[in-house]
Amino acid sequence: MIYLDYNATTPIDKVVADAMFPYLYGNFGNPSSSHILGSTAKNAIELARNQVAQLLNCSSSEIVFTSGGSESNNTVLKGVAHTYKNKGNHIITSQIEHPAIINPCKYLESLGCRISYVPVDQYGAVNPSDIESLITDQTILVTIMHSNNETGTIQPIEEISKVCQKHNVLFHTDASQSIGKVPIDVESLGVDFLTVAGHKLYGPKGIGVLYIRDGIQIEPLIHGAGHEGGRRAGTENIILEVGLGKACEISIEALKSPKIKELTDYFYSSLKRNFGDFMVLNGHPEKKLPNTLNVSFVGYNGHEVLDNLEGTAASTGSACHSGMTSISPVLNAMGVTEEVGRGAVRFSLGRYTTQEEIDTVITNLKKIIIAN
């Protein structure tokens, strides 16, 4: 299998798996216990917390472990809505957010919150001035993803944060897709909250992080004992937390390598050379994740292309329902036509992708595109 779906999930790095293994058996203590097994577990968690903090350039006290990106996003949205309900009930997000943002927003709308969905341009980018024009004295939160999972387009987060600071509005970014692919510095970004998903950066599934800037208090999503500084109840999942910490530590060095971007550029050049008459790039040509290529083979169906591209794992930008094909909400928000959107395929490269695999995919695509 040639795996080109790293934006969907990544395999666990062997070094990460090795770090997790001791906590499956011998080091099984409850971190809240006072004996040696408990303190061993507690120390491992705090090491992992520090490893995450180093990747994000923040204090370890600002790191809250969660069950994943969805929980982190829900915690911010519902926590801010509850905590700041006396100030206002208005939240601003974008039309291209992940369902882990869109659906909690819809839930909050059902409770009486007002949600504004800011549009994007043809590249899938938000204009900070559009956000500023929507802010009122009732606005309590702006949440804009750092990069889009389908197109890879990176949003102007620093500019948006300045707008939010100017109007004293809290700002959250879902960086699940960006972590491990591009450097993330919460101080430079100027965000109040940031979401991390472990399985997007060669860590295990079922673990994530919510960065909460020191000094900010919001109502927890999960109530119980005082775990995570009282911000997320539940006995800590030491196995997964150790894995995420190690994955973050590895990413610090991995980010220095240009290999993935070079392979992505090589892949795109090969696609243009062979299929330029049939192909359109979806997303920003430069301000995007270094591993992501969302391209449409115009006149073709993305699902059929992938079905015939045997031995390759990738994703499409459309959904099939009862024989009908509709383009994704992200491409639709970008103004991509039905004809172009139906042919969308997302190739996302990763740490283990090789040039030989790319060449094989190009060869196999020739049999599909040109043959038809």
Please give a quick description of this structure.
The chain has 372 residues and is an alpha/beta fold. 38% of the residues lie in helices and 17% in strands.
Written overview of the protein:
This protein is 38% helix and 17% strand. The chain is α/β, with parallel strands linked by helices and 372 residues long. The chain folds into two domains: 241 residues, Aspartate Aminotransferase, domain 2; 113 residues, Aspartate Aminotransferase, domain 1 (Alpha-Beta Complex). Helix 1 runs antiparallel to helix 8, helix 3 packs parallel to helix 4 and helix 5 runs parallel beside helix 6.
Keywords:
Aspartate Aminotransferase, domain 1, alpha/beta, 372 residues, four-stranded antiparallel beta sheet, seven-stranded mixed beta sheet, 13 helices, 2 domains, Aspartate Aminotransferase, domain 2
- Kindly identify the CATH topology of the largest domain: Aspartate Aminotransferase, domain 2
Task: Find the structural class using helix and strand composition.
Answer: alpha/beta
Q: What's the story with the biggest beta sheet?
A: 7 strands, mixed
Provide the gyration radius in Å. 21 Å
Question: Which secondary structure elements does this structure contain, and how are they paired or packed?
Answer:
Blueprint: E1 2-3, H1 14-20, H2 36-56, E2 63-66, H3 69-83, E3 90-94, H4 99-110, E4 114-118, H5 128-134, E5 139-143, H6 157-166, E6 170-174, H7 186-189, E7 193-197, E8 208-212, H8 238-254, H9 259-275, E9 279-281, E10 292-297, H10 302-308, E11 312-313, E12 315-316, E13 318-321, E14 324-327, H11 329-333, H12 338-341, E15 344-348, H13 355-369
Parallel strand pairs: 1-11, 3-4, 3-5, 5-6, 6-7
Antiparallel strand pairs: 2-8, 7-8, 9-10, 10-15, 12-15, 13-14
Helix pairs in contact: 1-8, 2-8, 3-4, 5-6, 9-13
